[in-house]
Write a structure and sequence with these properties.
The protein is an all-alpha fold. The protein is built from 3 helices and no strands.
């Protein structure tokens, strides 16, 4: 699966975003919104702004 490959990639940006998608897929009741993204970033110890490319 490409998503799992991205989660194991050398690129930290790809790993981080793949982790978010996998986390979101495990929680189908949550919407994919900016608020949820910011929650994910904060809970991982990263700022949402620093994850933008």
């Amino acid at each position: 699966m490409r998503l799992e490959a991205a989660a194991d990639a050398d690129d930290s940006w790809a790993r981080f975003h793949a982790g978010y998608v996998l986390w979101l897929l495990d929680r189908p009741d949550l919407p994919n919104t900016r608020r949820i993204w910011e929650f994910w970033c904060a809970s991982s110890g990263r700022d949402a702004a620093e994850t933008a490319r």
